[in-house]
């Protein structure tokens, strides 16, 4: 399809058409463009980012085809198509593309399980079909057209998921996917805000199946059954399934007026339901019980996101195993490219499947991607990639198999390694070999959620207002290098840390944006100039020490002046201002970057009057200083709590802290934020304790009746405080909150799992979506800050990204 043909399916105006070529790719983010001829850049004017600001970036990367929502300054050799809504235009374009293919397409929707069902179906059918599917959880108004665009003539089955958050969305996605077979996974409370009630949400989701031939769903979901009967056409066949009997891991299912008996490796209710959706779909496709059971036996857990983990020899490993395709490689390389913690970048890649390209074309494309992403070392594993070694012009090594590679004893050193491979290569063995060994407790940090929160707070600001993000105390426990690197990538204006050594480590790990240090002692003055750091100056004595250290130097580090307005912590008082001004006038080479203060009660409406008093005092004091200067420093006073509550006090910059991690101190914006961190581990052992026996140190826990306990490998040395012992704290195991019993130990905690199905190895959620950090803080009468920052450094951090 040529660019000029957009007029056939999209309502819009062709502003300029010096170039009319076939459309080869779609892009909406200039940072993720894999440069090749025929890419169309869709400039989307979103709530937090305006894609029109990045048109020049896309042009510099070679893009010459643009769909825009407003008239822009046009390059003479580029083509521009003006539309009202760029996402709608993308959907219309992909709808035209979809019509060209008449092979079966499975559309999946529901409240939960969409991505798992899609991935498991692909696992079960990957040797029967050449499958095109949504990458990871691409199921939005934007993700669906990007997924469907990947359909090609070499495929013979499509599997796409669709998610919605409000009415009117599914009809648009149905026209893009045009499914021939449907799966309705379930109906739950997720994303309820956009609907009046559950019935309206169910009916909206059912619109995906308006023209399908069959729909698979669980008969136990009566509301799903009800809305499907009303939504589908008379020609559509409803295919409900139901579990009639279950004993251990044996499940008897009725579907299509037949009875099937399956043995499942998963036993939690959500996984069982997801598995049965897949089994019923294979039965509908005509496969017998023996074939389906063999496919069920080989199912493997799905990694929903890229995971970046600490690795041996001061390295990192990005785990993207089990899934390998060209588009997924582009996404993973983009993520790798954003990481600046280490300069050296290495990619370990297996053979790629189902691309529709010859090996020569395919691996030439891979080589181009590696070169454009500045990959220093490449390791290819597999027969096909071995045979195509001549296509690679980066430093490369090749191995026939994963076993051969492991036997060679590869060891990274101060580098970031992307491991990406097809499922049958078992690249998890490589990740396990490279990963830094630590005990099993991990803190998962969801980078997508973190950026959602950043953008939410940005949406509260005027365009000219800058933002400083506090990354002190290991970025509130989340990992300062990784989070600071992400914030730098997303162009925050400043970072704030508590001490100079934190800032120096950030500089050593590739952070170059301005950093303000809150507590600087004379012993660390020497570091400021060397590492381009900006100290907070809060007293005359400190200022004089600073000036004495840099005496006779003209190029002084810039400073930030802290004013005391009511916090009664650090800062210049009004009585100090004249002497401060005298020093500033005497030292013309000293640059004041900002004047600021700190609100003591911005998170509590009971202190609104005091906050206004602080603001008035700040205005008065800062004005006195600024009148004495020949330039205008920035002013800032609000922290997270003040960003939403006091927009009139945003001044030139705001400081974002705990809000970045999904906690609104005012509790008024909490529903708009996403939880960033989850602390997880696995059950070490399950024990039966007879009535009357004691449990743990000090014998504070007692079994009042025959009790089952689970021993969890986390204790106060990991940050799980002793205050959580003796039933105060709870953990989530297999969907059930279970209380602690006895005292929390240094490295272990015991929980009461009486009546709950628990075994050794089961996942334990200490905090996350449930129980939340806020709940933990409430249990022990503290604040979320303390819970987060208490997670010790011996707990391994894993960073997740789509």
TrEMBL record:
Binding-site residues, substrate: 569, 746
For activity, the cofactor(s) needed are:
pyridoxal 5'-phosphate
Active site residues of this protein: 472, 697
EC assignment: the record states 5.1.1.1
List keywords of the entry alphabetically: Isomerase, Ligase, Pyridoxal phosphate
Give residue ranges for domain Alanine racemase C-terminal.
Answer: 676-800
Q: InterPro entries, alphabetically?
A: Ala_racemase, Ala_racemase/Decarboxylase_C, Ala_racemase_C, Ala_racemase_N, Mur-like_cat_sf, Mur_ligase_C_dom_sf, Mur_ligase_cen, Mur_ligase_N
Return the protein name.
Alanine racemase
Summary of the function given for this chain in its UniProt record? Catalyzes the interconversion of L-alanine and D-alanine. May also act on other amino acids.
Q: Please state the pathway this protein functions in, per its UniProt record.
A: Amino-acid biosynthesis; D-alanine biosynthesis; D-alanine from L-alanine: step 1/1
What reaction does this enzyme carry out catalytically? Answer: L-alanine = D-alanine
According to the UniProt record, list the residues that bear N6-(pyridoxal phosphate)lysine. 472
